[in-house]
Write a structure and sequence with these properties.
The complex is a heterodimer of chains A (117) and B (392).
Chain A lengths: L3 E5 L3 H13 L3 E5 L2 H10 L4 E4 L8 H10 L5 E6 L15 E4 L5 H11 L1
Parallel strand pairs in A: 1-2, 1-3, 3-4, 4-5
Helix pairs in contact in A: 2-3
Chain B lengths: L4 E6 L20 E2 L3 E2 L1 H11 L3 E6 L4 H10 L10 E6 L12 H6 L2 H7 L3 E6 L2 E3 L4 H9 L4 E9 L7 E5 L5 E6 L13 E12 H13 L7 H11 L4 E6 L3 E3 L3 H10 L28 E2 L4 E3 L2 E2 L4 E2 L3 E3 L2 E2 L4 E2 L4 E3 L2 E2 L4 E2 L4 E3 L1 E3 L4 E2 L14 E2 L5 E3 L8
Parallel strand pairs in B: 1-4, 1-6, 4-5, 8-12, 14-17, 15-18, 16-19, 17-20, 18-21, 19-22, 20-23, 21-24, 22-25, 23-26, 25-28
Antiparallel strand pairs in B: 2-3, 6-11, 7-13, 8-11, 9-10, 9-11, 27-28
The chains are: A alpha/beta (117), B alpha/beta (392).
Chain lengths: 117, 392
């Protein structure tokens, strides 16, 4: 069965790029454009993986991560940020991977495959 | 050394077994020995040790605890000395209270993040003991431990209700069992076992990782004793014990509350020196005149707090809190009377705990406790809730 991925990202360009790439790899991708939407979708549906941006308006990715961890599901989590500095935030240690956003999507796909196959 | 240490005091316990004393207040805010609150002991330990970054993690019914901290523990000027403040559960990651001791710390990772201390000292707000944590901290740092817990020497026969541990020659913890039916003996003296006192110090970086892992684990009850410590041992973390053989009491039940209070009335066994100028046990003292023992009174082996009046009554082996009035021909024996109670003429009290604001004129409440809707402890002590007998 195809694996389900929740993509939480506020930048439309990146969102559609990742969605296309991941879907072409055979994943089912659900999108959330704000942190709040991400948490809601996470609560009410089952995912194998969450890809989470950090800098978002309203609820940032760190808080989203805290709320996701609080739900105690087995879902894998990748933090995908343009900034390496958040790596130093204690809560980000709760994620399974931390990627720095780059122009190439190859690193992301490799990490997704490594985590959920 | 103390600058790199943040202290979390777990003060969120509901204290269900101390009901009705915990009906309107968190367990650490329960009065003790007339003038103290339970929390004063651990706070005094921390402050006397020289710790200056102290956060009390509170949740249930924290109003009276907050007020007490404001009144009695407003010691530090933030920029100069450090801080000591209560932090109510923020529910930052979901609408839930703390599930266990480990969860209480986990839910405050944000505070750790802001402060980034090298080590985190974790204390319980509901124990009565005197300890200079300096020696614990020194050992923890010297051994380069990931986690150090205080192990008490406890009579083996009574150790089953605790987490018990085994250590090697270097004090490294080799086994930890929560509430074992047959507690392992302490190698140096087999009459004793080593039990977990709920006093921990950990490397912040290590403990944060471990707590996040634990938070993700559905099968965990998020408790240091039940989940975190056993898991850390099995994963090979460096966990050491600091052996402590001083006085330590955990106020678990109404009877242990009663007996711990009375330990301090006992002349032979002075558990803690409350008059040590180098290690003062602080509290909030309201501005009141000294106790007034009037003509015709008979007072023996008792603590009588300021602002109280004994108006020709008999008081034996009892603890009388501030602003208590005991009227003519009343008799109070083996009892603890909380603030602002009035014991009316001829009232006879024995083996009773009376919470604040009770005006008692019924002479027979100890014999006929049932009639008055009172609670009884396992060891047949009567307990009167706050304001149960109103001023008519």
């Amino acid at each position: 069965m195809a694996k389900r991925i929740l993509l939480v990202e506020d930048e439309e360009d990146i969102l559609s790029l990742y969605k296309d790439v991941l879907e072409s790899e055979g994943y089912i991708v659900e999108c959330a454009r704000t942190g709040i939407e991400g948490v809601e979708k996470f609560k009410h549906s089952e995912f194998d993986l969450v890809i989470l941006d950090i800098r978002m308006p309203q609820m940032d990715g760190i808080e989203v991560l805290g709320r996701i961890l609080n739900e105690k599901k087995d879902t894998k989590i990748i933090i995908n940020s343009a900034y390496g500095s958040y790596k130093d935030n204690f809560l980000t240690w709760g994620a399974d991977a931390y990627l720095i956003k780059s122009s190439s999507t190859e690193t992301l796909i490799n990490k997704v495959k490594e985590l959920i196959g | 050394m103390m600058k790199n240490i943040l202290t979390f005091i777990l003060a969120g316990g509901k204290g269900v077994r101390l009901y009705p004393l915990t009906k309107n207040r968190a367990k650490p805010a329960v009065p003790f020995m007339g003038v103290y609150r339970i929390i004063d002991f651990v706070l005094s330990n921390a402050v006397n040790t020289g710790l200056r970054k102290i956060v009390l993690l509170t949740q249930y019914l924290s109003l009276s605890l907050d007020r007490h901290i404001r009144q009695g523990w407003d010691l530090f000027k933030y920029d100069v000395d450090g801080y000591l403040y209560p932090l109510p559960a923020q529910q930052r990651y979901g609408e839930r209270w703390y599930e266990g001791t480990a969860d209480a710390v986990y839910q405050n990772i944000y505070t750790l993040q802001m402060e980034r201390p090298e080590h985190l000292l974790i204390l319980s707000g509901d124990h009565i003991y005197k300890m200079d944590y300096k020696f614990l901290i020194e050992q923890h740092i010297k051994k380069d431990a990931d986690f150090t817990l205080v192990a008490l020497l406890y009579p083996r026969s009574e150790s089953s209700r605790f987490g018990t541990l085994e250590i090697n020659r270097e004090n490294r913890v080799t086994a930890f069992i929560e509430k074992p039916s047959n507690p392992p003996p302490y190698k140096k003296d087999e009459r004793f076992s080593l039990v977990n006192a709920g006093i921990y110090i950990a490397k912040t970086e290590t403990i944060v990782k471990v707590l996040i892992e634990d938070a993700k684990n559905n099968y965990s009850s998020h408790d240091f004793g039940k989940d975190v410590i056993p898991k850390m041992i099995s994963e090979g973390y460096k966990i050491y014990a600091y052996v402590f053989d001083g006085y330590w009491k955990d106020i678990g039940t109404l009877d242990s509350y009663f007996e711990t209070n009375f330990d301090f009335l006992n002349d032979e066994e002075k558990p803690i020196n409350l008059k040590d100028p180098d290690f003062p046990i602080r509290t909030y003292f309201p501005p009141l005149p000294p106790a007034h023992i009037k003509k015709g009174s008979d007072v023996l082996n008792s603590y009588i707090a300021n602002g109280s009046e004994i108006n020709g009554a008999r008081v034996i082996n009892s603890i009388i809190s501030p602003l208590v009035k005991i009227e003519k021909n009343a008799s109070v024996e083996n009892s603890i009377i909380f603030e602002r109670c009035v014991i009316g003429e001829g009232v006879r009290l024995k083996n009773i705990i009376i919470d604040k604001d009770n005006f008692i004129k019924e002479v027979d409440i100890c014999e006929n406790w049932k009639k008055y809707g009172l609670d009884l402890t396992e060891k047949n002590r009567v307990v009167v809730a706050k304001g149960w007998f109103k001023n008519a």
